[in-house]
């Protein structure tokens, strides 16, 4: 009897195309299907590998005949095709779940509503500097599946979103990091915070007593989520509010990390990544590094020379004494809160885009204290006007990055900061947050 080895990949982006290559390498008959147009570079890869694909459509008969489906994180469970697959009993999994089957590498998995990319990049930087044979993947860099197919890394640092976690079942993190939980993407979770929280805690599933769970002891939603859940892994909390041993804490403006009776200490003034949120990110990375017994001098050096991430509180330029900062990666309210909290000057704030059911109330106090004007960058800005009309005197609507930069420049004066920190997704006017940030930087340089 012939065994069905048909595997279908839904979505032909970085993760989908990488999964297709690994699946082909593992002897599956692979078919890639994308409801939109496939980017030329991915199309060329699929053609070079002789992998069948379709774009701008889904051929349901073929897809429903799969033995397993690997789904892009961007496709919601509510999608009719995904519902049909589940009704038929066809397993629908993530690229991370699939690729995890074919590697014995140690997994450091980092999730959270904010700070994932920074913490993942910093952890990878420390491990690389220590000479480990380490890969960087997940929501960042080259596809995890493609790296599993083509590289032989001993360790991976993976940035994991809640969408990826939703389709992970047997995959296990050796070190799981949960940075924080704030309302985000609630449109994908029936507008219920508890559903989103449950998704985040999947980072700890399948862990054993030999594994580690690193979390923020100052984060209310994380602590609430831990109640009633059991954890097999060793717990290592971090805090800037209280002394924690073992774990990480702040003492006289020094980060102290204590794992296995080993102490690491470093002044926060020495960190390359400044701001309160980056103290948390550095603590999480430092804990992961100490678990792996990376030497203290290597951790210190790495934290001093890591490069800031593009589109995340990225300094663009100073023009006529006005600073411009690109924080386009701030696609939720909490990210914008962190950005505002780190500002030490008066701010002209560029906000807006696709609102995912945002609650702007947490920004109101900081807006009153620091923001002199709001420039809206989005097709529908009514909720921003409603939220802040009593807190700032000037709220202006714009429809392009160039217009937003020009208006903000005219509203600011010497010594002020123009901050693009939208608190919203970007796809009403841009391809993605990178496109939004790049257009903003180009516009600033042309002022």
TrEMBL record:
Residues 110-288 form the Mur ligase central domain. ATP binds at residues 112-118. Keywords: ATP-binding, Cell cycle, Cell division, Cell shape, Cell wall biogenesis/degradation, Cytoplasm, Ligase, Nucleotide-binding, Peptidoglycan synthesis. It catalyses: UDP-N-acetyl-alpha-D-muramoyl-L-alanine + D-glutamate + ATP = UDP-N-acetyl-alpha-D-muramoyl-L-alanyl-D-glutamate + ADP + phosphate + H(+). Pathway: Cell wall biogenesis; peptidoglycan biosynthesis. One of its GO terms (molecular function) is UDP-N-acetylmuramoylalanine-D-glutamate ligase activity. Its EC number is 6.3.2.9. Pfam families: Mur_ligase_C (PF02875), Mur_ligase_M (PF08245), MurD-like_N (PF21799). It is found in: Cytoplasm. Residues 311-424 form the Mur ligase C-terminal domain. Belongs to the MurCDEF family. NCBIfam families: murD (TIGR01087). Cell wall formation. Catalyzes the addition of glutamate to the nucleotide precursor UDP-N-acetylmuramoyl-L-alanine (UMA). This is UDP-N-acetylmuramoylalanine--D-glutamate ligase. It comes from Mucilaginibacter boryungensis. The lineage of its organism: Bacteria, Pseudomonadati, Bacteroidota, Sphingobacteriia, Sphingobacteriales.
């Amino acid at each position: 009897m012939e065994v069905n080895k048909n595997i279908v990949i839904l979505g032909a982006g970085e993760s989908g195309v990488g999964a297709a290559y690994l699946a082909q390498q593992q002897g599956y008959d692979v078919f890639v299907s994308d409801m939109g147009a496939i980017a030329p570079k991915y199309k060329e890869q699929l053609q070079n590998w002789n992998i069948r694909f379709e774009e701008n459509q889904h051929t349901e008969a073929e897809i429903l005949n799969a033995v397993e489906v690997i789904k892009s994180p961007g496709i919601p469970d509510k999608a009719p095709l995904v519902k049909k697959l589940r009704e038929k009993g066809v397993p629908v999994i993530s690229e991370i779940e699939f690729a995890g089957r074919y590697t014995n590498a140690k997994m450091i998995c980092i999730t959270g509503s904010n700070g994932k990319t920074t913490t993942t990049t910093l952890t990878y930087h420390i491990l690389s500097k220590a000479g480990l044979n380490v890969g960087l993947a997940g929501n960042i860099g080259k596809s995890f599946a493609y790296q599993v197919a083509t590289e032989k890394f001993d360790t991976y640092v993976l940035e994991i979103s809640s969408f990826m976690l939703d389709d992970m079942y047997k995959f296990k993190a050796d070190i799981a990091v949960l940075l924080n939980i704030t309302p985000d993407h609630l449109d994908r979770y029936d507008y219920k915070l508890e559903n989103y929280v449950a998704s985040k805690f999947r980072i700890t599933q399948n862990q054993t007593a030999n594994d580690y769970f690193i979390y923020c002891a100052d984060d209310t939603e994380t602590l609430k989520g831990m109640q009633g859940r059991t954890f097999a892994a060793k717990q290592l909390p971090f805090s800037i509010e209280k002394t924690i041993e073992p774990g990480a804490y702040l003492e006289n403006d020094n980060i102290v990390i204590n794992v296995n009776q080993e102490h690491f200490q470093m002044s926060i003034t020495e960190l390359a990544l400044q701001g309160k949120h980056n103290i948390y990110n550095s603590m999480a990375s430092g804990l992961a590094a100490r678990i792996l017994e990376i030497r203290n001098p290597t951790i210190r050096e790495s934290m001093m020379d890591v490069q800031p991430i593009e589109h995340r509180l990225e300094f663009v330029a100073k023009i006529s004494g006005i600073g411009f900062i690109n924080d386009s990666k701030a696609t939720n309210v909490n990210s914008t809160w962190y950005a505002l909290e780190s500002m030490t000057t008066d701010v002209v704030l560029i906000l807006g885009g696709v609102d995912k059911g945002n609650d702007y109330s947490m920004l109101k106090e900081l807006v009153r204290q620091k923001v002199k004007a709001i420039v809206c960058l989005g097709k529908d800005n009514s909720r921003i006007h409603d939220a802040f009309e009593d807190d700032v005197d000037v709220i202006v609507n714009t429809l392009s990055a160039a217009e937003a930069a020009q208006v903000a420049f005219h509203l600011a004066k010497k010594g002020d900061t123009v901050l693009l920190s939208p608190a919203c997704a970007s796809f009403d006017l841009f391809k993605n947050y990178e496109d939004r940030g790049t257009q903003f930087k180009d516009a600033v340089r042309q002022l």
